[in-house]
Amino acid sequence: MSTYHIQTYGCQMNYSDTERMEAYLQALGYDKSATFDEADLIMFNTCSIRQSAEDRVYGHMRTIEQMRRKHRKITVVVTGCMVRKSSSRYSSQRDKLFGTMRELDIALRTEELPKLATLAREIDPESKIPEIKEESLEDYFKIDPTHSSHQSKAQAFVAISNGCDKFCTYCIVPYSRGREKSRDVQDILKECEKLVENGCKEITLIGQTVNSYGLSQYDKEEKTFEFLGEKEPFIYLLEEVDKLHEKGLVRTRFTSPHPKDMSDQLIHAMATLKTHMPYLHLPVQAGDNRTLKRMNRTYTVEHYRKIMAKLRSAIPGISISTDIIVGFCGETEEEFENTYNFFNEMDFEHGYISQYSERSGTTAAKFIKDDITDQTKQERWNKLNDGLLRAKSKKAHERFLGKIVHVLVENQEGKKCLGRSEHYKTVQFAAASGSNLLGEIVPVRITKAMEWILEGELA
Ligand code: SAH
Ligand code: SF4
Ligand code: F3S
Fold first, then answer.
1. Of 231, 298, 383, 392, which sits 20 to 30 A from 328 (CA to CA)?
2. Which class does domain 404-458 fall in?
3. Close Cβ partners of 43 (under 8 Å, ≥ 6 residues apart)
4. How does pLDDT run across 281-307, given as a tens digit for each residue?
5. C-alpha 106: how far from chain center
6. Mutate to test the pocket of ligand 3, among 16, 81, 111, 281 (most ligand atoms within 8 A of CB)
7. Counting ligands in written order, which one lies closest to the CA of residue 57?
8. pLDDT tens-digit series, residues 190-218
9. CATH code 3.40.50.12160 region(s) in the chain
């Protein structure tokens, strides 16, 4: 029996896609390999958000070269956000990656996953690759995912859309994943229902701009959601998922929303739905209007501030995290100071701070000069990440000292349990000897607040 190994990089969307890729490979007759070294087919599900993410894949290619020198027969597939054209090493028109990755056999655009079997036959006509029903699907979302990203069946990602219409000037996603397309609402609900029937307690809805579900150019042309009238499609979806509370769903989350589509309807739904957790990751990217404009973020600092105020008044105690890019083209010292001060003012409880990395093909790469030195980018990152973010995260953790939170256990090794609270805080505690709490939601009293983690004991 042939085996596969999938190496996944990037955001939750890629992890969710990997679950569909696994299902497809299993339908083709492959088994999951215990290790990278033993697999017959190695697939890299790549991310191109920053150069550093791409470099890691190139690093692995050297290992493959060594494996092949030892006469190991391996099929190498690269998929995900680095691929522009699905092709094999024998295709007449090949992806550019074939020019830089000598070890590559197949390049596959994520949404063209159904074509993988055809490409595999192209590189190995002798192999008897069976015909499977998944090959004829036009929409890769129709492939049932394995839901293997989480250790327990109590948690799952459910992809609701793919692609992005927003075109932030620095970002590769609209090019790598294409225009935004929403998944069929009934398919999403069926998947959620099945998950809950199988014991899922927490569903995270995912998409590049998850709250623009049903609002894309494509959806407008197709008039898919006209039947809803004034109600936003994303609200409808959240309400329908929330009904699964009766069948055992306890928690819903979604990621990542875009500030432009954080409507009053959505804030109201988050505040009133039974299963929605008091946490939101709302990327702001910069706290200066000139920077935001160059980034084409389509909102201002004032608008973002208003959303935050509404969220905090509708959902008292909500925990909010964000993404920031430092060192974007033309970012002056004053602009950076404004971003720093805004982060401080907004009291973000967590954040991912990135140093700007130019991505070929984006508007910024074409028209705006990447004129901030690596040293300045690093200094700004240090100031924001090691200076402010650490302190904010610790302060946010301290408010839970002595309190009881409910932790969904994601990982257990011996007695040591790790999981997330309602507010998405990572909590560590010890289980009683011999008990298995994986996938359970348990009360934990917080005894210690550190920078990135809380410690507690079973209450
Ligand atoms: N759709 C989400 C973000 C997806 S990309 C949103 O609009 O907020 C995840 C994060 O990567 C972004 O929030 C941004 O902070 C970072 N990022 C994207 N492009 C980048 C680039 N060229 N250089 C550095 N960081 C980048
Ligand atoms: Fe990229 Fe902007 Fe789309 Fe987010 S909204 S995926 S940052 S283009
Ligand atoms: Fe990376 Fe693609 Fe996600 S570029 S961050 S894997 S959408």
1. 392
2. mainly beta
3. 4, 5, 6, 7, 21, 25, 77, 78, 79
4. 999 999 999 999 999 999 999 999 999
5. 24
6. 81
7. 3
8. 999 999 999 999 999 999 999 999 999 99
9. 3-139
Query: How do beta strands 319-326 and 350-355 pair?
Result: parallel
Select from 16, 48, 149, 157 the residue to mutate for testing ligand 3; criterion: most ligand atoms less than 8 Å from CB.
48
pLDDT at 70: 86
Q: Is pLDDT of 71 > 80?
A: no
pLDDT in tens, 371-389: 999 999 999 999 999 999 9
281-398 CATH fold: Transcription Regulator spoIIAA (3.30.750)
- Nearest residue (by CA) to ligand 3, atom 3, is 11
Take atom 13 of ligand 1 and give the residue whose Cα is closest.
323
Fold for domain 3-139?
Answer: Rossmann fold (3.40.50)
Span 74-103, average pLDDT = 97
Q: What is the mean pLDDT of the chain?
A: 96
* Residue limits of CATH 3.30.750.210 in the chain: 150-277
In the CATH scheme, what architecture does the domain 150-277 have? 2-Layer Sandwich (3.30)
Contact between residue 272 and residue 278 where contact means Cβ atoms under 8 Å apart: no
Percentage with pLDDT > 70 across the chain: 100
For ligand 1, atom 24, name the residue with the nearest CA.
Answer: 356
State pLDDT tens for residues 236-272.
Answer: 999 999 999 999 999 999 999 999 999 999 999 999 9
Give the Å distance between the CA of 162 and the centre of ligand 3.
11
Q: What is the pTM of this model?
A: 0.96
Ligand 1 contact, 325 CB (< 6 A): yes
Listed in order, the ranges of the chain carrying CATH 2.40.50.140 are 404-458
- Pocket around ligand 3: residues whose beta carbon is below 6 Å from it? 10-11, 13-14, 47-49, 80-81, 172-173, 176-177
| 370 C-beta closer than 6 A to ligand 1 | no
Ligand 1 atom closest to 168 (CA): 7
Give distance in angstroms: CA of 67 to centre of ligand 2: 37
